[in-house]
Amino acid sequence: MDFGYQGKVAVITGSSKGIGRETAGQMVKLGAKVMLVARGEDKLIEAKEALSEYGEVDYVVADVKKNDSAVHIIEQTIERYGRLDILVNNAGGSFAKSFEDISISDWEQDLDLKLLGAVRMSNAALPHLKKQGGAIVNLTAVLGKTPPASSLPTTVSRAAGMAMTKAMSKDLGKYNIRVNTVCIGLIRSDQIEKKWKKEAPELSWDEYSRLDRHNIPLGRIGDTEEAANVITFLCSELASYVSGDAINIDGASGHAL
């Protein structure tokens, strides 16, 4: 099956580890050239070395909270590879408190990273994506659709990212640029593994993953690879008529239609 990645160039933020790194690996193996982006150079070097055996990979150390960093990332990508076809906005983290416990600074930092970081990267990438069309995938979260108590500000940032995705898909469709968001549920990550080792170190990962208290109908926490599979599909030619969607990767744990 041809995913259409040969000759394509992708920029993936937050790609030194986790979902971003796994997605980069899948795209490289399918023939894409990938620019990895993160704030920590050590992890980027490690990721580049691991993935380079499969194809062309490079990296940029940058913080997407800075306007000039987004421009620098795209400039470096064009200088290195000559084009840009795919942008995956994956930079972010989880920060959740109750409304009365959040400072204005907390709100500003969360929105600056998760929402405006994607805005900055998309703005910088747009002139190049317009040349031949392409794909943007914004990572958000399932809880952005149904925010529970004590989930701020992250669920607000993620809900805003979904709204932005829908509007972008309508504005950019005329350039054959597809824009989608994947809404992440419980997926194995550094943060989840720390929680496992703190809460139940006596259990194996498989045992912890399948605990009833996670309330996942499919019965387990998802693997990083499973999230990357969906992102890789959405950025491929196989998804050439998919745009403006918010797709859950959550084992059916979400409650929104």
UniProtKB/TrEMBL annotation:
* Gene Ontology process terms (BP): bile acid metabolic process
Asked if the Swiss-Prot or TrEMBL record annotates the protein with the keyword Transcription regulation, the reply is no
SUPFAM superfamilies to which the protein is assigned, alphabetical: NAD(P)-binding Rossmann-fold domains (SSF51735)
MF-aspect GO terms: diacetyl reductase ((S)-acetoin forming) (NAD+) activity
Give the catalytic activity: (S)-acetoin + NAD(+) = diacetyl + NADH + H(+)
Keywords, alphabetical: Oxidoreductase
- The answer, when asked if Oxidoreductase is one of the entry's keywords, is yes
Listed EC numbers? 1.1.1.304
What is the main EC category here? oxidoreductase
Q: Name one Pfam family in it.
A: adh_short_C2
Q: What does this protein do?
A: Catalyzes the irreversible reduction of 2,3-butanediol to (S)-acetoin in the presence of NADH.
Give the family from UniProt. Answer: Belongs to the short-chain dehydrogenases/reductases (SDR) family.
Could you identify this protein by its name? Answer: Diacetyl reductase [(S)-acetoin forming]
